[in-house]
Write a structure and sequence with these properties.
This protein has 374 residues and is α+β, with helices and mostly antiparallel strands. It contains six helices and 20 strands. The strands form six sheets. A five-stranded mixed beta sheet has the order 2-10-9-4-7, with no helix packed on it. Strands 11, 12, 13 and 18 form a four-stranded antiparallel beta sheet that branches. Strands 16-15-19-20 form a four-stranded antiparallel beta sheet, with no helix packed on it. The longest helix has 41 residues. It is extended, with a radius of gyration of 52 Å.
């Protein structure tokens, strides 16, 4: 009897292998799941920026070498020594607690590494201190390394207020008007007014906000603004922060408000063109050529040569020295018809009268008669 091979026979032969795979698969699933989770975590740990120091302590006037890895390639970084800060809590007072005058800038290489010498300076706030490294442009990233400034004052850190959480409760607005000086190129200034509420369980004291100013396609330039006050848990506060642009700024700007690493609000701001500056240059282009022309004509009129028949000034009369010895001109008398015919040559001869004394027209003319008289 011949045995047949078909689908049913293959299905029966493969059944033990299938049973074995089904038995082993549940045991392998947890290991596979953990390996999948471990890969992103390892990548995140590798990409996290780190900072290392050549010395953990140095005095004022010394120098240390700051190195770092895991930063963005070809990124511009800022290196500062800051007081009242720890790597765990960061720089509490912002860059106002750092020795900004002794800071240094460095650009990472293609792999995100750098090494830069940093002079040691005393920060304005007491220690504990850190070397604070942060990006200047692009995506924000920062890292701190503990450091001790020898001989610098030390003090306890302020109590933790990390339980507080601020959120904007109302729409932001810009308050203020432009002055006449702004029309002539003075820096435009406003106040960014907003209302925040504390959604956390702990109060927030003297929060440090960041105001970003963006124009066109450029990234916003951030400036720190600290508000003095306390926002209790569940309470709200109205905050006004100054905003100022550069001199002569005009066009469409975007004002952003950031607290921590979160952007709370954005507000557009349209700034008019300073037409006073344009008017000034137009007047300058008209007045200066006119003044130069007038000055040039006055110089030409003064240095040009004078001729004998030069015109006299209107209203001037010749003085005695000029008119002395010249014949006196008199107004000619009305001439008779006979003297006009004789000419000026006979002007010295006596002019005969038209009539003799006894033949005057008034004596020889017949008297008018009236009716009834002879």
């Amino acid at each position: 009897m011949t045995r047949r091979t078909g689908p049913e026979t293959l299905r029966r032969a493969a059944s033990p292998a299938r049973l074995l795979a089904l038995a082993v698969l549940p045991a392998l699933l947890p290991a596979l799941f953990l390996s999948v989770l471990a890969v992103p975590g390892a990548r995140a740990a590798e990409s996290a920026p780190t900072v290392s120091l050549s010395k953990k302590e140095a005095g004022k006037g010394g120098e240390i070498t700051v190195s770092g890895k895991g930063w963005r390639g070809e990124a511009l970084l800022m290196l500062l020594i800051c007081g009242q800060a720890t790597p765990e809590r960061g720089v509490i007072g912002g860059t106002n607690s750092c020795a900004n005058g002794a800071g240094r800038a460095v650009t990472t290489d293609e792999k995100g590494a750098f090494s830069k010498k940093l002079p040691v300076a005393e920060p304005p706030e007491p220690c504990p201190c850190v070397v604070h490294v942060a990006t200047v442009t692009g995506e924000q990233a920062s890292a701190d390394a503990a450091f001790t400034v020898a001989g610098h004052a030390t003090a306890e850190l302020p109590r933790r207020t990390g339980g507080g959480k601020l959120a904007v409760l109302a729409a932001t607005r810009l308050e203020g008007d432009s002055s006449l000086l702004t029309w002539f190129g003075a820096p435009p200034a406003r106040r960014l007014v907003f209302t925040v509420g504390n959604l956390g369980p702990a109060p927030v004291e003297d929060p440090v906000f960041e105001i970003g100013t963006a124009h066109g396609v450029y990234a916003p330039q951030w400036e720190e603004r600290q508000w003095r006050g306390t926002v209790a848990p569940g309470a709200r506060a109205r905050i006004a922060l100054p905003v100022e642009l550069s001199a002569g700024a005009h066009g469409d700007y975007q004002i952003s408000l950031r607290y921590g690493k979160k952007v709370l609000a954005e507000q557009p701001w349209g700034v008019g063109r300073p037409w006073g500056v344009t008017l000034f240059w137009v007047l300058l282009c008209l007045v200066v050529p006119a003044a130069v022309f007038r000055i040039g004509m006055a110089v030409v009129d003064r240095i040009r040569p004078r001729t004998g028949g030069a015109h006299r000034t209107a209203g001037a009369r010749p003085g005695p020295a000029v008119s002395k010895g010249l014949p006196r001109r008199t107004t000619p008398v009305a001439r008779t018809a006979r003297s006009a015919a004789a000419g000026d040559a006979d002007a010295t001869t006596a002019v005969l009268p038209w009539f003799t004394p006894d033949s005057a027209p008034s004596e020889n003319r017949p008297r008018p008669t009236t009716k009834g008289q002879a």
